User: Fold this.
Amino acid sequence: MELVFATNNAHKLEEVQAIVGNRFTIKSLADIGCSDDIPETGVTFEENAKQKTDYLFHKYGLDCFGDDSGLEIDALNGEPGVYSARYSGSRDMERNIDLVLSRLGDNPGRTACFRTVISLFLNKQQYFFEGVIEGHIIHERRGAGGFGYDPIFIPAGYDKTFAEMTPEEKNKISHRAIAVGKLAAFLKDNAD
Assistant:
């Protein structure tokens, strides 16, 4: 079975394909010839994920899924939230991380979570799946792996940042892994 993932992010594609396994072929936007700038104007992760799948389904008529993810920091009232990818006003993750660390300063309250919401269009029906991992923000970057805010986020119960974990370690516990696990279980039970 083929599904289009509303992304061209190679990291996300690898993570999702590893979790879903070989039963499903996950295609990127590039794989279907879509170079459109798909709108992401929602104020929640669910709205943004839904915009992506609505766009793809109505334009291409394909079974597809899209996600929106972000970092929510309690001391920053849930910021960066849906603006995680462009928190500093750009998509430069180093600047985004710098802004988070600057805004937190020496604040001892550093609890945070990563949240992913997936919207799936399958057989002309829409479904949603969510994954959340709790943790905290450290004071400086650690690790060379991962992407995004991974170098400053330590998941609860661990002593390593996502960026210090192997992809296999992260894929077992991440917010995306949790949401994609729910998606994969649903597909296994409901895909033709």
About this structure: The chain is about 30% helix and 25% strand. The radius of gyration is 17 Å.
